[in-house]
Write a structure and sequence with these properties.
The complex is a heterodimer of chains A (273) and B (149).
Chain A (H helix, E strand, L loop, with lengths): L22 E12 L2 H9 L7 H14 L1 H4 L10 E9 L4 E12 L4 H19 L7 E11 L6 E2 L2 H8 L4 E2 L7 E2 L10 E6 L1 H7 L3 E5 L8 H11 L12 E4 L2 E3 L10 E5 L6
Parallel strand pairs in A: 8-12
Antiparallel strand pairs in A: 1-3, 1-4, 2-3, 4-5, 6-7, 8-9, 10-11, 10-12
Helix pairs in contact in A: 2-4
Chain B lengths: L1 E4 L5 H9 L7 E8 L9 E8 L3 H16 L2 E9 L1 E3 L4 E9 L2 H18 L2 E7 L2 E4 L4 H8 L4
Parallel strand pairs in B: 1-4
Antiparallel strand pairs in B: 2-6, 3-5, 3-7, 4-6, 7-8
Helix pairs in contact in B: 2-3, 3-4
Classes of the chains: A alpha+beta (273), B alpha+beta (149).
Chain lengths: 273, 149
């Protein structure tokens, strides 16, 4: 991970986007401003001294998005094709939620524009209401989603969800000692998931694979070994020397039966402790 | 209590936790296994431990359950580390509490013998002359077979 706005000497520079392909870019951001319930009520009924608060804040947000490059030093000036700013009055939390979406066909992302729109809309809300409430607090300004461009799509919360779903099931590819997610059978027909662990993984160069149950001459570990040798002679190693086997994480022998979606692991004698 | 973790542990803290608030315990045996700087080859600079998540915890639980069936134990704590470790680092902890010392000594010994031969852990040593997977030892098998029959 590198910071694209810093060059090799760590100096700030503007990224040259001339050679980047154009794509449809969209970003949305949100934030909120917390205020006293009385202020929110005045805002809702249009009773604030400066007039229509939300309409003014919306225009301010849109204008700000268009002028982001004047505020944020290394941002490009972008011909935005769409900017929308929306408000939701949340009486339960006594706050106004502000969201903004920016879009263009171009070479750089528009998340700074969306974030700027939200920030300035919030500041404008403050300015419009400050005569009656100086305790208002702006917060939680963040990017919700962005799409298009080389860095790929982003949706806030996805990273956390990814981490949670990546609960380790079995050792696999990658550094020894690390774990990868166990795969599911991706085939329509019944199949077994085969894993090779530790030294066996490294010497065979195979971490995980699936084998169709139909390819097994007999539906047991012995049959699986035969099917694997059929696929690649190097799997003869599984029948040589001391290679252990577990079916669904319970120690097994050649005669142990195998059924659909079983997890079969082959590994060398254990050396822990 | 069984834990498989990459973080280091402190044997003193773990033993204290096992005994916390208990006065019926008469003996506690706490074994800690460490990374040596020599093994199959000299100059071992690091060790990487791989395991089979899911099966590892189940295998350790089975060993502890068997120990509890053989000796009158009042508490067992097993911690095994995985990932990369340096010489001097703790790898494994087995702490056993019992009313009397003999049961605690023997159960701790038993758990370590079975752990070394039945729990799916594999050591890879990084040495001055290269990396290699540690081979099983016949002596470990012999040690474990002492408890059979």
């Amino acid at each position: 991970m590198t910071l694209t706005h810093l060059n090799q000497r760590g100096e700030a520079h503007m990224v040259d986007v001339a050679d980047k392909p154009e794509s449809r870019r969209e970003a949305s951001a949100s934030g909120h401003i917390v205020m006293r319930p009385e202020t929110l009520a005045l805002l809702a009924e249009g009773g604030l001294p400066k007039g229509d608060v939300l309409a003014t804040a919306r225009i301010a947000g849109i204008q700000a998005a268009k002028r982001t490059h004047e505020l944020i030093p290394l941002c490009h000036a972008l011909p935005l094709s769409k900017v929308s700013v929306d408000f939701h009055l949340d009486e339960a939390s006594s706050r106004v939620e502000v969201s903004a979406t920016c879009r263009l066909n171009g070479r750089t992302g528009v998340e700074m524009e969306a974030l700027t729109a939200v920030s300035v809309a919030c500041l404008t809300l403050y300015d419009m209401c400050k005569a009656v409430d100086k305790d208002m607090e702006i917060g939680a300004i963040h990017l919700d989603a962005k799409s298009g461009g080389r860095s790929g799509d982003y949706r806030r919360g996805d990273e956390a969800a990814k981490v949670a779903s990546a609960a380790p099931i079995v050792t696999g590819e990658g550094e020894a000692g690390e774990v990868s997610v166990g795969m599911r059978c991706d085939q329509e027909s019944p199949c077994v998931r085969v894993k090779c662990l530790a030294e066996l993984r490294e010497s065979l160069g195979v971490s995980e694979l699936t084998v169709s149950l139909d390819d097994l001459p007999t539906a047991d570990v012995g049959g699986l070994k035969a099917a694997l040798v059929e696929r690649d002679p190097r799997f003869a190693r599984l029948s040589e020397g001391r290679v252990l086997c577990a079916v669904n994480q319970v120690m097994a022998v050649d005669a142990t039966p195998i059924t659909d979606d079983d997890e079969v692991a082959f590994f060398p004698p254990v050396t822990g402790g | 209590m069984i834990r498989v973790q990459s973080a280091p542990f402190d044997a003193g803290t773990e033993q204290q936790a096992l005994l916390d608030g208990r006065t019926e315990v008469g003996a506690v045996v706490c074994f800690t296994g460490l990374v040596r700087d020599f093994n199959e080859r000299p100059e071992v600079s690091a060790l990487t431990l791989e395991h089979y998540p899911g099966m590892t915890e189940a295998a350790l639980q089975e060993i502890v359950t068997e120990a509890e069936a053989r000796w009158p134990l009042q508490g067992v704590r097993v911690i095994h580390r995985v990932g990369r470790m340096a010489p001097g680092d703790p790898i494994v902890l087995v702490a056993v509490a019992s009313a009397h010392r003999r049961a605690a000594f023997e159960a701790c010994d038993f758990i370590m013998d079975y752990l070394k031969t039945r729990a799916p852990f594999w050591k890879k040593e990084h040495s001055a002359s290269g990396d290699y997977w540690v081979a099983e030892r016949e002596s470990d098998q012999r040690d474990a077979s002492r408890w059979e029959g």
